[in-house]
Amino acid sequence: KPRILVVANQKGGVGKTTTAINLGTALAAIGERVMLIDLDPQGNASTGLGIDYASRQHSSYDVLVGNALIQNVAQNTYVPHLSIVPSTLDLLGFETETASEKDRVFRLRHALNNFISACEYEQEPSYTYFILDCPPAVNLLTMNAMVAAQAILVPLQCEFLAMEGLGQMLRTIEEVQSGPNPELQLHGIILTMYDSRNKLSSQVVEDVRDVMGKRVYKTVIPRNVRISEAPSHGKPVLLYDYKCLGSQAYLQLASEVIQREKSF
Amino acid sequence: KPRILVVANQKGGVGKTTTAINLGTALAAIGERVMLIDLDPQGNASTGLGIDYASRQHSSYDVLVGNALIQNVAQNTYVPHLSIVPSTLDLLGFETETASEKDRVFRLRHALNNFISACEYEQEPSYTYFILDCPPAVNLLTMNAMVAAQAILVPLQCEFLAMEGLGQMLRTIEEVQSGPNPELQLHGIILTMYDSRNKLSSQVVEDVRDVMGKRVYKTVIPRNVRISEAPSHGKPVLLYDYKCLGSQAYLQLASEVIQREKSF
Ligand SMILES: Nc1ncnc2c1ncn2[C@@H]1O[C@H](COP(=O)(O)OP(=O)(O)OP(=O)(O)O)[C@@H](O)[C@H]1O
Ligand SMILES: Nc1ncnc2c1ncn2[C@@H]1O[C@H](COP(=O)(O)OP(=O)(O)OP(=O)(O)O)[C@@H](O)[C@H]1O
Ligand SMILES: [Mg+2]
Ligand SMILES: [Mg+2]
Prior knowledge:
The structure is a homodimer. By secondary structure, chain A is an alpha/beta fold.
């Protein structure tokens, strides 16, 4: 059965999209078949994988409102084994357009279940990982992702204000677990944008490890300029500059994620 | 008549809260009476000004749903002339709780108008500036702020992905101008987290100035570790470390904002 992982944190700019793109790329590089689903109206994951606006006629919005099936919307990226359901600004309308619908928080879960069954029925090669990128909010889009997923990865910037939001994120996970998705598990907390010149960074790492213990991945993603340059080339940093510290850290994170997968 | 400025950008982590806090502090430092209104459920502006959770019994949520008046919710900060309407996670419920109300996008505008009239009537000292901090989304909270405000400041991180969101933000401003708030003007775009060691930063500055011209402030806020340390002390960087590059840049920005105010 394929694994559905959601990358979420309502705090903005903490590395959700960068993590979704590069974790997806690393898993694809070792032969897993991965589909990224971009649920952020900003469409940064789609841009970061080189999907320009003109080729997003069909998007995650169409899947959520029931206009299209995942198999008709997913497109290849030039990363082998990695495909994407891109996003557009249409997603901004999803919450109000479905205000009266009872099942609205299950839309993505149902669409994914239908797609997975269709793959089995058609004996198509199935995906082994779905990775869901979320907007910086606890809204219907993020809820859809958390209800569809089996596990959640929470990127956490090594900054004081980002720590403050962690408590809120953990409460939201508990609400989803005691509500629409009891099987959702915390996969782990990823420390991002660690700046070794900044003593605040190491203080945050220490504080978060103290409180969260093993729920924090050992790998820490450093602040690395090559990571922020990669999206302007429409490429994951793993393809843009394989040898840089940023890429090495995401490869290490991927192997740690796979290690943890064994225990789920 | 008091000026109502909104600080917004749906891209996350670009420096909205940092700008709202430090611009507010700088304006207060030169004698203006400033009220900050925190409209982000994360409550980072409230935390950054030292308001702990225990003292947020009354918040911006109560103002928006009509449970309380601004004068009963605003509290002093230890920055002279700067008060704040703090926020709590209650704000997460605002959008669904008012789903059927016609006037929901005008709630903040009406509350501010009532407060300003009450000050005049009671001959209380009036505020000269209101600064509204927004969550990273184009949602009902941000819309309330954009409908209440006379001018908008858009912080823009010197990163490729942040540039992509600028077009969306400008379109949102146009929609508000042709809809509920024709008087909303673009005050300016603030370039933030400029990293002189990173050639991408200077590329972004050049590109944004090419496209946006005079709408971009001359002042560029550098990436500066003292800025990210300040919130953990519950202080604006202007009080935490007056001499650092970050503080100097925000003081320069404040004087540029005041300069522009003369032409509005
Ligand atoms: N480790 C890193 N080092 C340097 N820059 C990084 C790193 N990770 C991400 N960035 C850059 O920081 C910015 C924010 O990252 P990203 O967009 O991935 O965060 P996000 O959480 O997805 O943001 P949003 O909340 O807007 O969705 C981007 O411009 C990205 O290129
Ligand atoms: N010029 C700067 N130099 C260094 N760090 C900064 C700077 N400006 C902001 N920061 C830090 O970067 C992080 C993001 O800034 P901030 O929280 O102000 O952005 P925001 O746009 O309000 O985020 P959100 O979208 O979550 O509301 C914070 O941890 C802040 O302390
Ligand atoms: Mg993102
Ligand atoms: Mg903020």
